[in-house]
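Contributing new records

If you add data, match the layout below exactly. Sequence lines come first and carry their own label; structure lines follow with theirs. Keep one chain per record. Anything else will be rejected by the validation script.
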Amino acid sequence: MAKEAKFGQEIFIFSPFITGNLIVDISKVTSDKSLFVITSLSPSAYLGGSLDVDILTNLLSKGIPVFHLTNLHAKLMLVGTKLTVGSQNFTDGGKYNEETSLVCDVSKDQIESLEEKITDLLK
């Protein structure tokens, strides 16, 4: 989905756990787009190895904003009118585990509602 994003399009990724190269790979194909990463910066995730601070630091050094959302459990990616929601985190395990995902097109009204909720969360 990130590869198919149009020039300047916003991409939102929500995942409580981030490891491996998946987010880094996405950031490489989104250099002309606005990528926003929302995660939960919990000490237990870091200590348990399911949140890689080096990856988050790498994203921040590229000017990609990383936001903390307490108690985040959602795993989704929103690109334009395409939304993927599933059980997979943006981790190495999420690429190889047996996971469930749904990819769908959402209406303009639904996008406006989602973007409003995302804006409220990021405040």
